[in-house]
Design a protein that fits this description.
Layout (H helix, E strand, L loop, with lengths): L2 H9 L11 E3 L9 E10 L3 H24 L4 H4 L5 H5 L2 E11 L3 E10 L1 H10 L4 E2 L6 E8 L14 H7 L10 E2 L5 H6 L2 H5 L3 H10 L4 E10 L2 E8 L2 H6 L3 E6 L4 H24 E2 L4 E9 L3 H11 L5 E10 L2 E9 L2 H10 L2 E5 L5 E5 L10 H5 L6 E2 L17 E2 L7
Parallel strand pairs: 6-7, 6-8, 10-17, 12-16
Antiparallel strand pairs: 1-13, 2-4, 3-4, 5-11, 8-9, 9-10, 12-14, 12-18, 13-14, 15-16
Helix pairs in contact: 6-11
């Protein structure tokens, strides 16, 4: 009998269908992470055909470097082996060519190159280099604005210049997809600023659903004298486990619109930087462990499974056995047991060792990550961190795994 069907029969007789597969991959990869646009090429050669061939080859190589710099530490590009054009073109998934201009000896164009994620990751894995494997879940941005420290906050309407700056943003987000509500009457009927301030997660989630977002981030801007103060805080469990609260200030300039656009860019760059630092993993050195998972019903298992899929170190996990109240999983992971435990703690999972030496995986209760009253919302919070420019990435030293070795699947 299929083990997932037995799992449903033994543990959850009320469930007609559970997952059909016995092995589950971790979070999928967003192909946007593996694409580069706006690559301008301009090559002169003996004839137009040779110029075009050279231009496309050069453009593809530059595009690959853009992707590499996005998903790896800064030193990785220097450690890559020299790639010939055939190596690169085999990694290209597809390419768009815009604004082509040619003469008898010259070729100019703008390229957008999309690479096959598996091919890029395999190149990095084979060379023992760390990288970010997955993008974040799409986040709904809620831009709350206060004209002064004493004024009432606004979320919608013409009074919210902060919302307009987000709607009109030009800064692209690759690692963390960002959704911004348009702020029409339909949005306002689902969520207003008072619900945001008191942490009404149900209403915020309903609005997120309209935009196919899976997380919610409140980004509040307050004008304070000659500067704007910006503070970001998660409103849901998943976002809070992956993006710590942050704050920073932006000096005012004569061009307020430009100042707000700069603040938007700083938020986007911070989110991208946090995701990159937190999700960086070296998959060539990996391990597996067998864990026992006590569960009382299907809902509890779905909660645990959703949290497991967000852990960057886990490449996959497999359900090996099921009996009343307990599941046996094999978890495949990288970088050592210590970091795995820390990553689990961030997502309210506990991995412990029982007296028998068997690993036990449990979930903790969902926490409230958002202040429930105005006074608490405005009070300093110890987990708030001042946002600093992205620090220089240092050399990457993987931890030695504490469990059995295994061959890393190429799909990682």
């Amino acid at each position: 009998m299929n083990i997932f069907k037995r799992f449903a029969t033994v543990l959850f007789p009320m469930c007609a269908v559970v997952c059909a597969a016995s092995a589950v991959r971790a979070a999928p990869v967003d192909s946007k992470m593996f694409s580069a646009s706006g690559i301008q090429v301009d090559v002169t050669a003996e004839n137009a055909a040779l110029a075009r061939e050279q231009a496309l080859s050069d453009g593809q190589k530059r595009a690959l470097m853009v992707v590499m710099e996005r998903i790896t530490p800064s030193y990785v590009v220097e450690q890559l082996p020299e790639l010939v054009p055939d190596d690169i073109i085999n990694m290209v998934q597809d390419m768009s060519v815009l604004n082509e201009k040619t003469s008898s000896v010259r070729y100019m164009a703008t390229l957008e190159v999309r690479f096959n994620p598996d091919s890029v990751r395999e190149l990095l894995r084979q060379n023992g280099l760390p990288y970010v494997r997955t993008s974040g879940k799409p986040l709904l941005i809620l831009p709350v604005y206060k004209k002064s420290a004493s004024s009432s906050p606004v979320l919608w309407g013409d009074d919210n210049a902060w919302l307009r700056a987000w709607v009109n943003r030009k800064t692209e987000s690759y690692m963390v997809p960002l959704m911004v509500p348009i702020g029409d009457q339909s949005d306002a009927s689902v969520l207003d600023v008072s619900k945001v301030k008191r942490g009404d997660l149900a209403s915020a989630s309903a609005l997120a659903g309209r935009y196919d977002a899976e997380g919610i981030l409140v980004v509040e801007m307050v004008r304070k004298g000659a500067s704007f103060s910006v503070r970001g805080k998660a409103m849901d469990e998943t976002t809070a486990s992956e993006i710590p609260n942050f704050s920073f200030t932006v000096p005012m300039t004569k061009n307020t619109q430009r100042t707000l656009a700069l603040a938007v860019r700083k938020v986007v760059e911070h989110l991208e930087g946090v995701w990159k630092r937190e999700q960086m993993v070296q998959f060539n050195d990996a391990a597996s462990i067998v864990v026992m998972v006590p569960v009382s019903d299907l809902k509890q298992w779905e909660l645990i499974r959703s949290r497991l899929t967000r852990i960057p170190l886990i490449s996959s996990y497999k359900l090996q056995a099921a009996r009343a109240g307990v599941l046996q999983l094999t978890i495949f992971f990288a970088e050592g047991l210590d970091r795995l435990q820390k990553e689990m703690q961030k997502r309210m999972l506990t991995l412990s060792v029982m007296p028998s030496g068997v690993f036990k995986l449990q979930s903790s209760e969902q926490q409230n990550f958002f202040p429930m009253n105005e006074k608490a919302a405005d009070a300093p919070r110890p987990e708030d961190t001042t946002m600093m420019p992205a620090a220089e990435e240092k050399g990457f030293t993987p931890q030695t795994p504490d469990a059995a070795r295994f061959s890393v699947p190429s799909a990682m």
